[in-house]
Amino acid sequence: MGAPRGRPLAGPARTTLVVTWHPGYIVRTTDSRAQAAVRTALADDLRLAAGLGG
After folding, report:
1. Phi, psi of 17, rounded to the nearest 5 degrees
2. Mapping DSSP to helix (H, G, I), strand (E, B) and coil, where does residue 14 land?
3. Which residues are CB-neighbours of 36 under 8 A, at least 6 positions away?
4. Could you give the maximum distance between any two Cα atoms of the chain, in Å?
5. Are 7 and 43 in contact (CB under 8 A)?
6. pLDDT tens digit string along 10-39?
7. pTM recorded for the entire structure
8. CA nearest 52: which of 9, 1, 4?
9. Distance in angstroms (rounded) separating the CA atoms of residues 27 and 23
């Protein structure tokens, strides 16, 4: 995915973005350990994004 995943980034019009995995990627990942790791990362990113809301 790269460096921006899981970090708040400045978006347009004074918004904040959080880059994360597409849920479809998790479904297509066949390795169970990799799938669990990506699922955990997605959940962490979504919690981060939810916490940024005002």
Report:
1. -115, 150
2. helix
3. none
4. 39
5. no
6. 999 999 999 999 999 999 999 999 999 999
7. 0.83
8. 9
9. 7
